[in-house]
Amino acid sequence: MRIEPVNESTCIVYFGDQISDETANLVRQATATIRRTMADVVTDLVPSYTSVLVCYDLERTDRFGISSRLRRALEQEAGDTAVETTSQVLELPVYYGQEVALDLEDVCEFSGLSRDDVIRTHSEQTYRVYAIGFSPGFAYLGTTDPRIAIPRKSSPRLRVPSGSVGIAGSQTAIYPSATPGGWQIVGRTPSKMIDWESESLALVQVGDRVKFRAIDREEFIELGGQFDDA
Amino acid sequence: MMLEILHPGILTLIQDLGRYGYQHMGVTTGGPMDEHAFLWANRLLGNPLDAAQLEITFGGLSLQAHSDTWIALTGADLGAHINKRPVRPWRTYSIARGDRIDFSAPLTGLRAYLAVSGGIQTPSKLGSRATVSREGLGALDGAGAKLAKGDRIPIGKPTPITDTSVPYSDIPDYDKPLRLGVVPGYQYQHFSQSARARFFSGEYEVSQNIDRMGYRLTGEAIRCDLDGIVSEGIAYGAIQIPADGQPIVLMKDRQTIGGYPKIGSLSALGAGQLAQRGPGALVSFYPIDVADAEARRLIFNQRLRKGPPGIGK
Fold first, then answer.
1. What is the ipTM of this complex?
2. pTM of the full structure
3. Three-state secondary structure along chain B?
């Protein structure tokens, strides 16, 4: 663990340099610990693959205070083997039909697999939520089967419809809202990834596991799926 | 109790201090691009320091008061007029029902703040009234819509004040060449000695590509040993160096995580000074210790809370 200052009210804690399940577990555990024990000084937390950015209130603590409290809280936690973090496995329905899978043909060409094989490969894996960012509720999931790990589009779309499920290299993600974006779109989920009216807001959290379930057109419509969310 | 928008101007947004506590869900903070000017506007009126205001970029805004109140103007001088009488920023004005306030174009700086006694009372979403249009949060409707002609902005009950102004020594000169302190951090170790030297000795120009998300600068290209990094949280004021070597300073509406190497970070007050510069302005950087940034902010906070605003004109 490495704690480094960023500016007068922010520091970053690194738990490793490489993306791994083990590092992701440390990040997840640290985020929970900081949230639970340091709410009096911490204003915001940004967990990612290997690090947690910690924003704090300079009126209540300073660079020494924050790092000693972080160290104490996180080292104590690390020694405490009783701490178990449970992660939910969330099943997300995805319609991989032609009219919404804007780049599925390209993935077939890239992988040499048939449509059905690409769909099966994408949906048989259980993914982990490594980070949430870019836009509200945008979850970075990893890791895809190397055969379908197609790079980002060379020029991003100006508008990716909301609910779109995309692939970028070893990552896959769902666009919670219509935004510009360069991921290769293979399907669309009718599930709402972010709901401003709900308590938890985002459907998934860092550390959760996600599995996609292929659904047909009929079920997509039944679950409230939209073909054009203009 | 409201202000009516007669003309929304180029970019006028409702901002409070920002939306905190949701960055782990990818929700950016938003908030005022220039905290120095924003905080002083609330301070002049005796408002809570996070009371919502109008952030007026470039000018062109016209509005009419539908009740008697007090306002404070701070930040850029955008050629404001009250009932066709020219007025200056960094002080309070008494406003009568029916008064009209117009902003023309920047004379100095880029972003003006108009605070009103009792604050703007639009719906709060996730604990904040800050507008982030990209995320559909804030604004009059709570869903990030642009202000439009005829919009009626609810405001709080005014608290009587004596006319005051910001102490002369706390009024920044936005025309002066900008030298900003950078706290080295993040991937700083991955920039070579000569890259760092170039960064701290060169002069950068503010490009045309500036918005609430980031400020792109042009100048001496800086290279990093790393192509990219594992995506990580981005602080307000962080300086990204993408492959072309041209720095991008990340501002209030920044994405919460990103994968470009960063050489360090500005302080919030430093980023706020940059936010008052438009295309063509020159900026240079020098390294500071985090202790330095901390001390400056605490001194600012102290002056803001306890310092006497100058009385009268």
1. 0.95
2. 0.92
3. CEEEEEEECCEEEEECCCCCCCHHHCCCCCCCCCHHHHHHHHHHHCCCCCCEEEEEECCCEEEEECCCEEEEEEEEECCEEECCEECCCCEEEEECCCCEEEECCCCEEEEEEEEECCCECCCCECCECCCEHHHCEECCCCECCCCCCCCEEEECCCCCCCCEECCHHHCCCCCCCEEEEEEECCCHHHECHHHHHHHHHCCEEEEEEECCCEEEEECCCCCECCCCCCCEECCCCEEECCCCCCCEEECCCCCCEECCCEEEEECHHHHHHHCCCCCCCEEEEEECCHHHHHHHHHHHHHHHHHCCCEECC
